[in-house]
Specification:
By secondary structure, the protein is mostly beta strands. Helices cover about 0% and strands about 45% of the residues. Strands 5, 8, 9, 10, 11, 14 and 17 form a 7-stranded mixed sheet that branches.
Length: about 190
């Protein structure tokens, strides 16, 4: 039986390197089957690196991203015929950081069944994204790299750095609730009174 070879894929792995720099690597792996002989294990130095919006971050060298100004953009790595990307952001006083989506559901605790609750306000109370708000069931703010979706009771924040956050969920006629993102993503609001 001939040896099968998987399709090479690049993963972008980044970590803060200093107060203004983020250090990234571009390791290569293959899905389903082993990589073909001669496939590199890391293409950090040979790949083409770029950022979509150079007014927020710039490339200092292959795999080294420098903060320019506060804002959100996309970090891209092009290797052979493929293009890989991750959303990144510069927050006040930080180097560029990879960002992610944080999402969950809010339910009506007064309903007989687990009914999604639209129009609840979800606010981030702590961390680098403190002060950001969104409404359940509404289109979330767009950020580079976001896959925007909306459905009843759903909330989403895009462009959030890794970490633990405290959220406040509130809606008129319901008791507000605070949650810790280490424990919950879904909330059930109980009617007031």
């Amino acid at each position: 039986m001939p040896e099968r070879h998987g399709i090479p894929q690049v993963t972008i792995v980044c970590a803060p390197g200093s107060a203004t720099l983020m250090l990234c690597r571009a390791p290569v792996s293959c899905s389903l089957y082993p990589c073909a002989d001669g496939t590199p294990t890391d293409v950090t130095e040979t790949a083409t690196w770029s950022v979509d919006e150079a007014s927020f971050a710039s490339m200092a060298s292959p795999g080294v991203v420098k903060a320019v100004a506060v804002g959100h953009t996309i970090l891209r790595v092009k290797w052979t015929f493929t293009d890989y990307f991750i959303p990144i952001a510069v927050f006040p006083g930080t180097p560029p950081l990879p960002t992610y989506e944080y999402e969950g559901m809010v339910y009506d605790g007064g309903a007989a069944s687990r009914t999604p609750l639209n129009g609840a306000r979800v606010e981030i109370l702590s961390g680098l994204a403190a002060g950001r708000t969104t409404l359940t069931g509404a289109m979330p703010d767009f950020y580079p790299g976001a896959t925007v979706v909306t459905f009843p009771g759903h909330y989403a924040f895009f462009g959030i750095p890794s970490g633990t956050y405290r959220l406040r969920v509130s809606k008129e006629g319901f008791q507000p609730q605070e949650i810790d993102t280490r424990q919950l993503t879904d909330v059930t609001l109980v009617p007031a009174g």
